[in-house]
Amino acid sequence: MTEIFASLSAKARVLDLGARHGSFKIERQDVLVVRVDLEAFPAHESAAIVQADAARLPFASGTFDLVIANHSLEHFKELEQALAEIGRVRTKQALLCITVPDASSLTDRIYRWLGRGGGHVNAFTSAPALARRIEDATGMEHLGTKPLFSSLAFLNRRNIPTKRPKRMVLFLGGSEHFLVLSNYVFRLLDRALGTRLSLYGWCSFFGVARAPVPLEPWSNVCVRCGAGHPEASLTPRVQRRWLIFSVYACPLCGAVNLLAHDSWARRSVTIADR
């Protein structure tokens, strides 16, 4: 997201669709960010907050230079209309970034099992099929898709402000240490056995990119804040070794994670795409 924001011109307009409090950190003050959600949420940053239905956006055609739908499409009851609205309100040179879970992944199945559906009304199981659907509805060319790896952050007890469901006992009540180890073991199993336990979903890009869109898979995703980082950027941050494991602190939240190798991620993606 940093590279994408850096490529925006001054006074560019960004739509954060299905944003709740906001799906990303505002990194520039010279662009206008409009966060839209069906419910009203207070702003945490300098962004305009609009309560509206994604299928009926209250904006003029050709308004936004960048549209971000971060884990929101799976919640839209009128998906085709919402995609058509994205195509209407974007400019001709706009970039669209869409992130969704793979409904066939272990992580998303756990999420929906714990949350009794988790509000998901659309189940996506094929990245190419979804990309074609978005292209047809928005008129924006598919630029590429980045595979996403799970952090299990939704199971972290630090991220659950309300009473935890009884089913959480199966995950040691959301113990961060347990989840860190689980993430690492899943990546090892994917590498050794060709499974896809650590794969979670996709981030797809459409339209016009003023800078190269990030498509390289990142295996290291923080168990607390859910931020992904390339291995090369984390290697200098390795604090210590525990037995044979490398340990790093997340650059964003400081949570301790076990360092995995991005080469494992590339192998997992290759196997999953066969």
Short synopsis of the structure:
It is built from 7 helices and 12 strands. With 274 residues, the protein is an alpha/beta fold. The chain has a domain at 104-118 and 149-200 and 216-274.
How would you explain this protein's 3D organization?
With 274 residues, the chain is of the alpha/beta class. The protein has a domain at 104-118 and 149-200 and 216-274. 26% of the residues lie in helices and 25% in strands. It has seven helices and twelve strands. The chain has helices at 2-6, 79-89, 106-114, 127-138, 176-193, 231-234, 262-272, and strands at 13-17, 32-37, 48-51, 64-70, 90-101, 142-149, 199-207, 220-221, 228-229, 238-242, 245-249, 256-258. The strands form three sheets. Strands 3-2-1-4-5-7-6 form a seven-stranded mixed β-sheet. Strands 10-11-12 form a three-stranded antiparallel β-sheet. Helix 2 links the parallel strand 4 (64-70) and strand 5. Helix 5 crosses helix 7. The longest helix is centred in the C-terminal third of the chain and has 18 residues, at 176-193. The two termini are 29 Å apart.
Q: Give the strand order, joined by hyphens, for the main sheet.
A: 3-2-1-4-5-7-6
**Coarse shape:** globular
Helix content: 25-40%
Q: In percent terms, what proportion of residues is strand?
A: 15-25%
Mind telling me the C-alpha Rg? 19 Å
Q: What is the structural class?
A: alpha/beta
Low-confidence stretches: none
**Quantity of strands, as a count:** 12
What's the number of helices?
7
The string of secondary-structure elements, in order, is: HEEEEHEHHEHEEEHEEEH
**Largest sheet: number of strands, sense, barrel closure:** 7 strands, mixed
Alpha carbon gap, first and last residue: 29 Å
Mean pLDDT: 90
